[in-house]
C-alpha cells in the first residue's frame, strides 16, 4: 500500500529499546539499557541551574541559534580544555544528544553505498543509523584493549579500489559500549597515523570518558591530535552530558574540522532548526557553576561500587557459566557464555525470573557471536545487582538441567 524508502521497507528496531516493554514490571531487575542511576542525579544543582537559566526566560522560550547558544559553547570548550583538547567555536556544534551528532555526520559525509568502518561489537543504534544512510558497513574486530588496530591496518592495506575505501571509522575508545574496553595509548596513536595515511575520518564517541573509577586515564583521540601533525583534520569528537549530568537534557555536541562542522550546522537546520535553548541554558548554568566538578566524583564512586558488586557476584554465582573482562569505568560488562548456550535462550528464561540483559548479537554488523551478552550495572542498586545475578544464575541452571 505505502511506498516506503529503501531503508524503511523492512526496518529493524534497536535490540535495547525492544526490551523496554518489560520495564513496567516493578519486580523486573534490568541490566539492559544504559540508564544512569537517577539516585546519582544532582537534583539540587540542576534545580538551581534551572532557576538561573529561567531568569532569562525570553531567551529560554524563544528559538535559539542552530549551532548552540553562546554560553553553552563556551562551557563545552572549557570542559574539553580540562580534558586536554583545544577547541575553537567554529568547530563546535551543539546537538540534541550525541546520537544526533552521528546522524548529522553521516548525512554530510556518507552517500548510499559508501563504506563505513565500525569496531565490532559496537553501539547498536549507530549501526542502525549507518544502515538507514545506506552505508556499506565493514566491521573491524575489537578485543579487551579496544579496536584491533593491526586488523584495521590489514583491512586498509588490502583495499584495491577507491570505492572500497572507508569514509569514516566509528569507535567508542574509552569504556566502549558494549564491551567496556578502553583503547590503549599505543593503539590510539597508531590509529591517528592510519587516518592521516589513508585519509579517513575517525569518529570518536566519548560519552563515558569521565566515568573512570580505577586505573590510569588515557587521553582522548582529540587530545592526542596535538602530538601528530595533520591528525586533527581527520578526527570528529562527539560528547554528551547524558551519562554525567542527565539524559533528559538531551545535550550533546560534535567537534570537527571547520568544513565538516559547517555542513553539520546546515544539516541540523533541516533536522530540528536548533536544540532546545531552555535545556541548553540549564546545562550552561550547571557547568559554569562548577557543580559538575564537585559532583562527578560521587558518580564515579557510585558506579565503581556497582561494577565491583556485579563482577563479584558473577564470579561467585556464574563463574562456571561465563567469562568476562572487568572494566575500569563506564557502565557495562561484556560477557561470553561458556558452552553452546545462546544469550537469547538465556534471556527468555531470565525474563521469566524477573531479570534481563541485552544479548550481544545486536551489537554486531554480521556474523554475531550468539553467546555474548551486555550487562549494565549503572541503574540497579547494589542489592538489586546481587539479586539480579542470583536470578540469572538460576535461569542458567534451569536451562542446563533441562538439557
Account of the 3D structure:
The chain is α/β, with parallel strands linked by helices and 403 residues long. The protein folds into two domains: 144 residues, Aspartate Aminotransferase, domain 1, CATH 3.90.1150; 238 residues, 3-Layer(aba) Sandwich (Aspartate Aminotransferase, domain 2), CATH 3.40.640. It has 13 helices and 14 strands. Strands 2-9-8-7-6-3-4-5 form an eight-stranded mixed sheet, sandwiched between helices. Strands 10-11-14-13 form a four-stranded antiparallel sheet. Helix 1 packs across helix 10, helix 3 packs across helix 10 and helix 4 packs parallel to helix 5. The longest helix is centred in the C-terminal third of the chain and has 28 residues. It is globular and about 60 Å long. The model has no long low-confidence stretch (mean pLDDT 94).
Amino acid at each position: 500500500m505505502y511506498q516506503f524508502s529503501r531503508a524503511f521497507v523492512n526496518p529493524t528496531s534497536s535490540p535495547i529499546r525492544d526490551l523496554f516493554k518489560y520495564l513496567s514490571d516493578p519486580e523486573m531487575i534490568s541490566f539492559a539499557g544504559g540508564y544512569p542511576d537517577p539516585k546519582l542525579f544532582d537534583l539540587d544543582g540542576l534545580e538551581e541551574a534551572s532557576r538561573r537559566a529561567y531568569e532569562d526566560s525570553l531567551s529560554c522560550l524563544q528559538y535559539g541559534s542552530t549551532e548552540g547558544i553562546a554560553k553553552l559553547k563556551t562551557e563545552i570548550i572549557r570542559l574539553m580544555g580540562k580534558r586536554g583538547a583545544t577547541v575553537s567555536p567554529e568547530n563546535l556544534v551543539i546537538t540534541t544528544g550525541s546520537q544526533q551528532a552521528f546522524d548529522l555526520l553521516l548525512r554530510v559525509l556518507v552517500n548510499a553505498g559508501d563504506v563505513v568502518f565500525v569496531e565490532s561489537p559496537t553501539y547498536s543504534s549507530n549501526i542502525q543509523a549507518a544502515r538507514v544512510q545506506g552505508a556499506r558497513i565493514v566491521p573491524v574486530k575489537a578485543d579487551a584493549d579496544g579496536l584491533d588496530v593491526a586488523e584495521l591496518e590489514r583491512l586498509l592495506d588490502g583495499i584495491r579500489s577507491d570505492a572500497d575505501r572507508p569514509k569514516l571509522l566509528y569507535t567508542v575508545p574509552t569504556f566502549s559500549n558494549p564491551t567496556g574496553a578502553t583503547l590503549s595509548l599505543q593503539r590510539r596513536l597508531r590509529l591517528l597515523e592510519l587516518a592521516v595515511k589513508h585519509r579517513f575520518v575517525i569518529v570518536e564517541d566519548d560519552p563515558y570518558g569521565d566515568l573512570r573509577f580505577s586505573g590510569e586515564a588515557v587521553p582522548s583521540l582529540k587530545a592526542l591530535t596535538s602530538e601528530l601533525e595533520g591528525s586533527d583534520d581527520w578526527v570528529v569528537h562527539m560528547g554528551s552530558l547524558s551519562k554525567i549530568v542527565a539524559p533528559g537534557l538531551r545535550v550533546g555536541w560534535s567537534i570537527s574540522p571547520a568544513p565538516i562542522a559547517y555542513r553539520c550546522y546546515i544539516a541540523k537546520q533541516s533536522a530540528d532548526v536548533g536544540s532546545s535553548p531552555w535545556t541548553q541554558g540549564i546545562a550552561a548554568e550547571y557547568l559554569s557553576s562548577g557543580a559538575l566538578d564537585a559532583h562527578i566524583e560521587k558518580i564515579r564512586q557510585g558506579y565503581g561500587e556497582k561494577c565491583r558488586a556485579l563482577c563479584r557476584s558473577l564470579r561467585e554465582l556464574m563463574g562456571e557459566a561465563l567469562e568476562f573482562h572487568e572494566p575500569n569505568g563506564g557502565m557495562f560488562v561484556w560477557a561470553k557464555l561458556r558452552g553452546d548456550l545462546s544469550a537469547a535462550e538465556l534471556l527468555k528464561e531470565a525474563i521469566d525470573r524477573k531479570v534481563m540483559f541485552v544479548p550481544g548479537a545486536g551489537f554486531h554488523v554480521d556474523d554475531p557471536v550468539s553467546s555474548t551478552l551486555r550487562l549494565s550495572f549503572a541503574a540497579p542498586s547494589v542489592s538489586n545487582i546481587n539479586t539480579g545475578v542470583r536470578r540469572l544464575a538460576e535461569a542458567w541452571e534451569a536451562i542446563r538441567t533441562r538439557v
